[in-house]
Amino acid sequence: MFQRQKQSECDPTKSLQAHVQTTYTISYTLKAEVKMFVKYFLLIALVQAVCAQQQFDVLVEFGTNFSTLAINTENEINELYHFNADMVREFNRELLLELGRMVPEMREADSSFQQQIAAADGVDDECREYAQDLRELFLLFQNWDIQDCAYYAHAELEEDSINRFLPYAITFSSENTRSISQVVESFGRNNAVTDFDALVTELDGEWEYYQTLAISFGDFLFDEILAHADVADRVYLDLVECRETAIDLQQSDQEYILAYLDSNCE
Predict the structure, then answer these.
(1) Residue 38 resides in a domain
(2) 30 domain residue, yes or no
(3) Cα-Cα end-to-end distance for the chain
(4) Are residues 204 and 98 in contact, defined by beta-carbon separation less than 8 angstroms?
(5) Which stretches of the chain are DSSP H helices?
(6) Which whole-number Å values give the CA distances from 126 to 38, 39, 101, 117, 260, in the listed order?
(7) Has residue 172 been placed in a domain?
């Protein structure tokens, strides 16, 4: 009996079955733990992917906002460019009209003066020819007077046209264009991996800067355009005064020559 029991305990078949059962239990438990860890790491990876996507979406939103603001601001600058050009064009037209009144008036006065020389009584040919020579000399001075009026009017208006609006508009447009690449520029200055919040903080500050710039510079450029009017009024009044002075000088020249004719150049 004892031997049979001992033999049963040493039965290799039963020992193998027990080993297999134990191994299966351990393997099942290990697989369950592995699955649990895999799910855990997949969850972490998913969360990280979602966070990374959200961070990327923030940068894309910043880029879109900067680009939209830059385009809208550039359109406003272009409108101000056209407005400024229209103002300058109108001022030049007014000056041209004033010169247009000046030249025909002086030409008509000169034509009438030539008739006076030709019709003068008691004047010999030599004196009449001398009067014509004097007329041509003074006519040269009169032409210089006209040129001076046009030159100074153009110089003053050109200085205002070039220096009042354009330098600021060019600077503003250049700075506004820079905003399009602001996200990339800020990305290059910050460590987005270890401190993404610092990058976002900088972009928030830049966004506020460009918004303020768009409003303040837009108002400034508009005021610059309106300031053309003060200069144009002054230049126009100076041109009117110059025209009147030139006409008075022409009349004085003609009276001087007529005085020679009255005495037959004696």
Answers:
(1) no
(2) no
(3) 179
(4) no
(5) 2-9, 12-119, 125-163, 166-178, 182-189, 196-226, 228-262
(6) 123, 122, 35, 12, 12
(7) yes
CA 36 to chain centre: 61
Question: One digit per residue, pLDDT tens: the chain, 266 residues?
Answer: 434 444 444 444 454 444 445 444 544 444 444 344 344 333 333 334 334 445 667 788 888 888 888 889 889 999 999 999 998 898 889 888 988 888 999 999 999 999 998 888 887 888 888 889 999 999 999 999 999 999 999 888 888 888 888 999 998 888 888 888 777 777 777 776 677 788 888 888 888 988 888 888 888 999 999 998 898 899 999 999 999 999 999 999 999 999 888 888 87
Give the tokens for residue 265.
Answer: 């150049």
What is the distance between the alpha carbons of residues 189 and 50, in angstroms, rounded to a whole number?
25
Residue with tokens 């031997």: 3
The Cα–Cα gap between 177 and 188 comes to 18
Domain count, the chain: 1
- CATH number where 252 lies: 1.20.1270
Q: Which domain holds residue 91?
A: 58-263
21 located within any domain = no
CA distance 70 to 76: 10
- The reported pTM is 0.65
The SS3 of residue 264 is coil
- Is residue 152 within 8 A of residue 242, CB to CB? The reply is yes
Over its C-alpha atoms, the chain yields an Rg (Å, rounded) of 47
| CA nearest to 253, candidates 141, 144, 157, 169 | 141
Is-contact 102 146, C-beta < 8 A? yes
**Type of residue at 209:** Y
